[in-house]
Amino acid sequence: MTTTMTASTTTPRPVLLISDPLPARLTAELHGDFDVRQCRGADRAALLDAVRDAEALVIRSATKVDQEVLDRAPRLRIVARAGVGLDNVDVEAATRAGVMVVNAPVSNITSVAELTVGLILSMFRNLPAAAASVRAGEWRRADFQGSELSGKSVGIVGFGRIGQLVAERLAPFEVELLTHDPFVTPEFAYAHGVAWLPLDELVATADVLTIHVPRTPATTGLIGERELALAKPTMRLVNTARGGIVDEAALARALAEDRIAGAALDVFATEPPVHSPLPHLDSVVCTPHIGAGTAEAQDRAASTVLDAVRGAFLGRPVHGLANPAVLTGNAPKEAVAV
Ligand SMILES: NC(=O)C1=CN([C@@H]2O[C@H](COP(=O)(O)OP(=O)(O)OC[C@H]3O[C@@H](n4cnc5c(N)ncnc54)[C@H](O)[C@@H]3O)[C@@H](O)[C@H]2O)C=CC1
Ligand SMILES: O=C(O)CCC(=O)C(=O)O
């Protein structure tokens, strides 16, 4: 049976649970159609309690949707991830439970690419330390001599949507663009002005190594002790993808022993990285997972997934499901997407 959204005093509105911050302007528009509830997804107990009645759950990266959450949510029909990464959602378990999963794959890629370029330039010109020193009343011009990005080689690990945008954004800086991506052909990379290299060769060549792969079992620890040992001592590493793809202990050792020159990190294995030494190293620039933290990206991400959620409850096709198998498997609940 398809739930319809005609406003009626007799038909209860579907319960839509929002567990991470979304733009208030967009969530305000939901109230006529849904019984909108909020909780803090990072607070596991609160999430497990609130999800009991939820028919739709809208999340960002701080909410983990696993088997336990799905078990607690017998009425749940759709999980909508207002962003790109689905590493915090057990998509297979959702499929088994007959729960649709959608995300917003292009919503924030420009913001992440721009942050990546900003972090690279910040490292080359020591911007955080220079700015902090002026704020402290100092004027130490000689201490902040940097390097030009022009003429350097940039290795892009993962040549998907964000990796390609980073290449486009960096091309005017006159850098040599290199990539490694096992699912992309050298011809495809070449057509984008980028040379394809095996991972070890990429790490050994790059002046900047920037990570743009999803976090999966295969990419966890992709850049570890062995890979960092191949890097030039002048290499700087950027991770705006996911914590855990770079082995943080190995990275901290490489930085402390000056085996690489620096790192810029927007993401961490545990967020916030309270027990990590990385934010305390002078050669590291850290940001608090703000790759998608722009008004534009947040608006796009929220409106994309909220449209999908509305569609699902109106019986409209839900496009771009992350788990289309939910519609063909033995899903116990009726799915309205096609
Ligand atoms: N810091 C932030 O706020 C944000 C972070 N992200 C992260 O960025 C990641 C990438 O996003 P998109 O580019 O949109 O994804 P995408 O799916 O378009 O591209 C990912 C690329 O990684 C490649 N890849 C997979 N395994 C690989 C491996 N072992 N080695 C090299 N390449 C491999 C894939 O072939 C694909 O081309 C997301 O999964 C997410 O975790 C995304 C948005 C915001
Ligand atoms: O949604 C967020 O909180 C961060 C964005 C992100 O990491 C993503 O879209 O993959």
From TrEMBL:
Key words, A-Z: Amino-acid biosynthesis, NAD, Oxidoreductase
Please name the GO terms that the record assigns under molecular function: NAD binding; oxidoreductase activity, acting on the CH-OH group of donors, NAD or NADP as acceptor
* Classification via InterPro entries: D-2-hydroxyacid_DH, D-isomer_2_OHA_DH_cat_dom, D-isomer_DH_CS, D-isomer_DH_CS1, D-isomer_DH_NAD-bd, NAD(P)-bd_dom_sf
Q: Which CDD domains match?
A: PGDH_4
Q: Which Pfam families match?
A: 2-Hacid_dh, 2-Hacid_dh_C
Q: Where is the D-isomer specific 2-hydroxyacid dehydrogenase catalytic domain?
A: 17-320
Q: What class of enzyme is it?
A: oxidoreductase
- Chain ranges of the D-isomer specific 2-hydroxyacid dehydrogenase NAD-binding domain: 117-291
**UniProt family annotation:** Belongs to the D-isomer specific 2-hydroxyacid dehydrogenase family.
What this chain does, per the entry, is described as: Catalyzes the reversible oxidation of 3-phospho-D-glycerate to 3-phosphonooxypyruvate, the first step of the phosphorylated L-serine biosynthesis pathway. Also catalyzes the reversible oxidation of 2-hydroxyglutarate to 2-oxoglutarate.
By what name is this protein known? 2-oxoglutarate reductase
